[in-house]
């Protein structure tokens, strides 16, 4: 099943910002960093979708071989009322709240599992240089609880592969959470941002003074 988020040890802010820039091999954990500082630490670079294909990110795998693939693991973990799962991990019952639009669902089929940073956006931002194995790990990242989120299917499809300069959740109450989670995933996987994306993240972060990014670099 999906583990809880890892909690990093608090430390000096300067060291925390430095830890964000270290490679996964050298930075085992990062202290919580104010959202605005985490946004400022993201590298800004141009983007290219040349060569992208969704199949280059093998996803919805059953990593622990318990019969539930990544989609089902997220649905089970994020249910506000737990569903029942049969031997093939088919879910019945349960309740979910999609924070993008503050809508409650009682049927799993009404939900999509959104990659917080879409696969195509990840490709544009650095994943084009990764191995297939690393792209598989990214597409099925259950170790960072904000990397995958169960949301209303229509909202996920409206978002598609857009970054925050092109799409934000319709619920105003969701904006700080969304930008924090987007920045968390970009930080965790050492992905870049383009200038328009960086500008929107910075503007939104300025309105979220209590938000922090707390993640462990991906292995």
From TrEMBL:
InterPro entries: GmrSD_C (IPR011089). Pfam families: GmrSD_C. This is HNH endonuclease family protein. It comes from the Bacteria. One of its GO terms (molecular function) is endonuclease activity. Residues 95-202 form the GmrSD restriction endonucleases C-terminal domain. The lineage of its organism: Bacteria, Bacillati, Actinomycetota, Actinomycetes, Streptosporangiales. The keyword Oxidoreductase does not apply. Residues 1-29 form the signal peptide. Keywords: Endonuclease, Hydrolase, Nuclease, Signal. It comes from Streptomonospora nanhaiensis.
């Amino acid at each position: 099943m999906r583990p809880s988020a890892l909690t990093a040890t608090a430390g000096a802010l300067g060291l925390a910002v430095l830890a964000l820039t270290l490679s996964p091999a050298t930075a085992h954990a990062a202290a919580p960093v104010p959202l605005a500082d985490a946004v400022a630490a993201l590298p800004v670079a141009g983007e290219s979708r040349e060569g992208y294909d969704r199949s280059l990110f093998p996803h919805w795998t059953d990593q622990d071989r318990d019969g539930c693939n990544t989609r089902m693991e997220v649905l089970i973990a994020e249910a506000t009322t737990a569903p029942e799962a049969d031997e093939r991990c088919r879910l019945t019952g349960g309740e979910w709240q999609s924070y993008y639009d503050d809508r409650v669902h009682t049927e799993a089929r009404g939900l999509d599992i959104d990659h917080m940073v879409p696969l195509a956006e990840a490709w544009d931002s650095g994943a084009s240089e990764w191995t297939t194995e690393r792209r598989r790990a990214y597409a099925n990242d259950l170790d960072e609880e904000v990397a995958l989120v169960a949301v209303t299917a229509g909202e996920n499809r409206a978002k598609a592969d857009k970054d925050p300069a092109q799409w934000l959740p319709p619920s105003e109450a969701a904006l700080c959470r969304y930008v924090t989670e987007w920045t968390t995933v970009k930080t965790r996987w050492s992905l870049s941002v383009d200038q328009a994306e960086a500008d929107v993240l910075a503007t939104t972060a300025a309105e979220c003074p209590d938000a922090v990014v707390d993640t462990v670099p991906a292995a």
